[in-house]
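tool_log.txt
---
The assistant was asked to compare two proteins side by side. It first ran the structure predictor on the initial sequence, then on the second. Raw inputs and outputs are pasted verbatim so the downstream comparison step can read them without reformatting.
(1)
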Amino acid sequence: MSLKDKIRYYRLRLLPRRLLPRSILILVLPVILIQSVSGVLFYDNHWQNVSRRLALGVAADIKNAIALYDAFPDQQDREIIVNELRTSADLDIRFTDIREKPENIRLKSNNKTAELIPALRKIGYPFTLNDLPADRRLLITFYLPDYTVEVLLPYKKFFSSTTYVFAFWALFSSLLFTGIAILFLRNQMRPILRLAEATKNFGLGRDVDDFKPEGAAEVRQASLSFLQMRDRIRRHIEERTRMLAGVSHDLRTPLTRMRLQLAMMDKSDDIENLLEDVTEMERMVNGYLDFARGGDKEKAQPTDMLPFVSDTLDGLKKNGLPVQFDCTTSVIMDIRRNDFKRCLWNLVTNAGRYGTQVNVSMIVSEKALEIAVEDNGPGIPEEKREDVFKAFFRLDESRNSETGGVGLGLTITRDIVTAHGGKISMEDSALGGLKVVMTFPI
């Protein structure tokens, strides 16, 4: 597999399949990138600099306090200096007796003291840190040769809390923006989903008269194109039906007169042959009309498929066809019952004409209904299986359907299957003959 194919494979695997998640991803990813870059820049150029300056300011105050304390050895002056530092410099500092410096002082740096510890080291004396989270303060103890200095330092004097405010605002604004984007995208997706549903229903032969263009200009344009296509298809079907109905009517009148005239003549072999030809012509005319009509006039109805198929096959059994039906699971589907029944009759009758055993099976899955009709007859050559669905195509004189050998039986069957949104195919049967499989979406 080439690199281009690998990229395409993983792109298809990782990217969401639906349009709404993809649109949200297109909007959210830039927001995440912008917030991430902003966060890095904020941390480097603002938070660290502010925290560093605050820490250096605290270290300078402490260093100046120690210098003033050393400059005035008088105890009374030192008390005045300490009080002045506490009030004016807001520095809670205490000078106590000398203490022994702990051995191996280890200072643990964290997010708050990352900039403070390097600043305090510049004072030049060993020190320890004790965190007082309950008081939100830090106790700093300096060990000088003549005395000990304790400083209670609030977090806010050396740590900038704006980083939390920035993080909260970044998260809140991202969530708010994403929520607004999802809300608007869902509103924009509804017309597209309605168009997809209308197209699907029209493909299944259902009415879509209540569909109206809405949404963005591009979606409205696609919807109008769909409506124009729907009207053209309906007009084409209606014109074809009217034309063949008119031809059928015009042909039936002289055929009826011919039949009456032949019936009034004396019986002879020539008369019988002519009657058979007239009957054949009537069957051909009816076949043309049935092919033209399709299922346009019948409305789809919710149907429990298991009893429907079983009852249809029972009617065929009464006509002497050796049919076996295998199915244990049913499903409710919207079908044109008369058309669907005719579809089954065509396939089972053809199978019974060329085989002594006909098996019909129905399998229901999560997304599809599959009906298979197979026989133990001679079958159809693989190279001609697609041709038999073409109008007026016949393998031989005897391979016909109930349309009277016009070559429209399987064509009508495929039209019915397609009108229900399904597909039909042929393959070899385990019985040795032909297996016809119809698959319908659920």
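(2)
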Amino acid sequence: MAVVAPFKGMTYDFEKIGDISKLITPPYDVISEDEQKEYYNSDPHNVIRLILGKNKTGDSDWDNRYTRAAEYLERWESGGVIRRSDLPAMYLTCHEYTPGDGSGPRVRWGIVALVRIEDEGSGVILPHEKTFSAHKNDRLKLMRACSSQLSQIFGLYDDSENRISGYIKKAASDQPSVSFEYRDGTKHGMWEITDQALFKRFADVMSGKSIFIADGHHRYETARNFRDIMRSRHSRSSVNRAYEYVMMYLTDMNDAGLTILPSHRLIKKCDEFQLETFFERLRPYFDISELPVSSSDYQDQSDSIRQILKEKGQESTSMIFHYHKGSSRYLLSLRPGAEKEMGDGLHPSLKQLDVVVLSRLVFERGLGFLDADLDNDRIFHYSSDMEYVLSKVDAGDYAMAFLLNPTKMDHVKMVASNSQILPRKSTYFYPKVLTGLVFNKIDPNENIRTF
């Protein structure tokens, strides 16, 4: 099953660097153009220069944002800005945050380690969302230029027997290698652990488990593509060569600090939409209830909607529809047995998911979108921020929105275990794992020691 190992991680030199919070960012794929500029200006050594470099006029095959990232990485290492550990280590992290769903602060624990890359269909590393070629090509160019993994893949494992979680957290009794408060108010700590007893225990626990990819599907597939390139160039005789592994941030899916936020759907345009025609198409599948807007405050509206969705979601798949020209919102509750109308070709594990019900019965049958339309970024946008969604629809920036409950962890596990794939943006594991705390340098001649 899953093979995990320590590694000689590269980190900023925490003793030399002043404020580490100025050097790190969220994952590259959630950074806007304005945020990219902001990170560039925050510090000349911000990791943005590695993971999301600027394009320049006159870029060529030998001078582009990927080659410039490699130059930065080499310069920072030779100049002592970043250092590589002398000993293999695992990196324990804690992340204190407020989920934004009305509940109080939480702390999520994770451990950064190497995980052996598996071939598709092995049942060891389980994806749950589809990927797109353009993103993988971009990340592969960066990995080939830098010969490094610059961001962790977010993976989940099941430690319901509590065989490792408590043991890992004992390591936090020592002072962390680095601790800081990030710009969003979250608090972070990281411990560099070289305890071989922990390596052995963690490896033993993980050897009987699968890992579910929570975030970073593109980066995982990129790491596998890079591995295949390196195999053809070097050797596949040893399963422990450095390129056979990928850096992952691993969290117990039972961790009380793990949060899944909903991924609400915003529709930019929907030609020739008629409310009554839409409802007429939906009534065979849904009970439809009108919800008048009782407050002008978006936070109050969001709190009320969350409560309604939570209560109704315990009975059946439920979602709330809001459109630009409407003075009310509408609760759509799936009728008993209506999931059968999604067809026999759909796996039973998928029929239980709100996002699949929404795609099959509302978007395709109610609004007439084709399957290919559902991945069109010019039509569909996504956000976990309900206040943002409501305000943007009211302002006319979007034609309509569908507000959802978060996907349950048990459902994600069930879908992945059955080798099924969720629709795009079905989950939002919150908060994202920050980029810049640790990197993995890939030396093709190096062997990774397993325990």
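---
observation on (2): The mean pLDDT is 91. Residues 263-405 form one domain.
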